[in-house]
Write a structure and sequence with these properties.
alpha+beta, two-stranded antiparallel ribbon, 5 strands
Length: 74
C-alpha cells in the first residue's frame, strides 16, 4: 500500500489495525516495513508499506476470510 509522506502515519495505523484483525483470526504476519514509493504528478512523494502473511499453507487464511478462489468479479 502506498501513502503520501504527509499521511504516512495514518497508513501505518491502518496496517497495524489490519495486523490486529488478522491476529484475531490466528493469522500471523510479518512486521510492517516501509520502502521507497513514487513521486506523484501532484509532487507528493509516497512510501510503500508492506507486510506478509506468514503461512505454510494459505488455505487457513483463505478459509478465514471466506475468499472464493477463481471467482469472476468482472
Amino acid at each position: 500500500m502506498n501513502k503520501a509522506e504527509h499521511i504516512l502515519n495514518d497508513g501505518i495505523m491502518f496496517m497495524e489495525d489490519l495486523k490486529e484483525i488478522l491476529s484475531f483470526f490466528d493469522i500471523s504476519t510479518t512486521n510492517i516495513w516501509i520502502s521507497e514509493g513514487n513521486n506523484r504528478k501532484d509532487d507528493h512523494i509516497t512510501k510503500t508499506m508492506k507486510l506478509l502473511i506468514r503461512a505454510r499453507d494459505n488455505t487457513k487464511f483463505i478459509n478465514k476470510i471466506k475468499w472464493i478462489r477463481g471467482r469472476n468479479w468482472g
